Structures are given as structure tokens and as C-alpha cells.
Amino acid sequence: MDSIIESGVQPKSAESTPRVYRENNPLVVVTGVSGSGKDRLIEEFRERSNMDVDVVNFGEELFERLRLQLPDLSSRDEIAYSVPQNELYPIIRELVSDIRERGPAILNTHVVYRHGGGLTANPAVEQQVNPDAYFFVQADAAQIVAWRRKDEFRERQQEEERDIALHQDIARAVTGYLAEYVNARFLVIENSSDNIDRNWRLLEENIEACP
């Protein structure tokens, strides 16, 4: 099956995307399908870059903040259907503002995620986050299968290569559209075992390029 982007659904590049003013400290989203290697890329960046950048698991921080107001909330999975949007969005804005005040930050999160048997994304949430850039980490589907099988510390959903490839195509295209929607930069990082050195430097260069 042809890639969605190769078939003509092409989001704007970082160079052509119009910029809007945001607070001083850059806030970027690193995303990608489970097993694409984004966690390792971020860890490599943290160990080797001289930049002082806070790395935030956005889902975990949001969950902990929500639990202060909703103590019955037992898991991140309940956020989507247990928290009314008029209560959720102000909390997201407050959290993002607090993260920006701490300094430059990477949000490690899933922009497109599995929910209720399908794939879900929420443009309204992305408006509240309002990042300076989205970095989409992708890898060959066969490589993702191999990396998932080697990961002994996390219980990952097992999928066939064709399903991973479709999920990745959809997630990449949707993330590109959302970047355009909120006037953020958009960059696809092609991940593999032998280019991690190039990729963490690419991540560093593009964070530095954010206003």
C-alpha cells in the first residue's frame, strides 16, 4: 500500500509553515508510533547534547495534575472519557504554561493514539498545547516489530507489519496536518539502528531553530 504522504496528502514543510509568536522557551513535541525508537532518541539527546532541555512525559504529568482535582481517576486511559473538555483544556493550558516557565522542553507523547479499537487525535488538545514544533519519529515497520519484541520492560500491543505501516502513515499525515493547524514546524525523523547519532543532532538543531 502506498504511503498516504506519497499519495499526495502532503503537510507543509517546516520551512513553508507560517510562524506565530509563542512564549520565549521553546516547547516541542516528539511523537511517533509505539516502538519507533523515540524514547531511545530522546535519551541519546539527553546524554549527548549540551542543551538544557526538560524532557516531559506529557501524559504522565497531565494525569498527575488531574488526580489532584479528580482523585478517583485511576489511569491515563480514563482521561478521554472521564474528564469534561471544559475542565480538561484549562488544566492543559496551565500545565503547558508551567512547563514553558521551567525552560525549553520536549513533550514525549502520542499525538495519534489507539482508543476504542481505532486511531484518535484531538485538534482541540493540540491547540491548548500549542507547541513550536512537531518531530515525528518513524522507522521501517519490520524494524518496529523487532524493537517491540526486544523490549522486555514494556508490554506492547503486537501488530503485523502492514498494520504498523498503516498506523504510522496515518499518524504522520495527521501530525503534519495538526502542525499546520497550530502553525508549528513539522519534521519527520527517519529512525534506524545506525543513524541515531545523526538523529539526536538533527533534533538538537531543530530545537535551537525554534523561536
Quick take:
The protein is α/β, with parallel strands linked by helices and 211 residues long. Helices cover 45% and strands 15% of the residues.
Main attributes of the structure:
single chain; about 210 residues; alpha/beta; 8 helices; about 45% helix; disordered N terminus
Question: Overview of this structure, please?
Answer:
The protein has a domain of 136 residues: 3-Layer(aba) Sandwich (Rossmann fold), CATH 3.40.50. Helices cover 45% and strands 15% of the residues. Helix 1 packs across helix 8 and helix 4 packs parallel to helix 5. The protein starts with 26 loop residues before the first strand and ends with a helix. The relative contact order is 0.24. The N terminus is likely disordered.
Q: Give the strand content.
A: 5-15%
Strands of the biggest beta sheet: in what spatial order?
2-3-1-6-7
What's the architecture of one domain in CATH terms? Answer: 3-Layer(aba) Sandwich
Query: What's the pLDDT, averaged over the residues?
Result: 84
Quaternary organization: single chain
Quantity of strands, as a count: 7
What's the gyration radius in Å?
A: 17 Å
Shape: globular
Spans of at least 5 consecutive residues whose pLDDT stays below 50 are 1-21
CATH-defined superfamily of one domain: P-loop containing nucleotide triphosphate hydrolases
Largest sheet: 5 strands, parallel
**CATH class assignment of one domain:** Alpha Beta
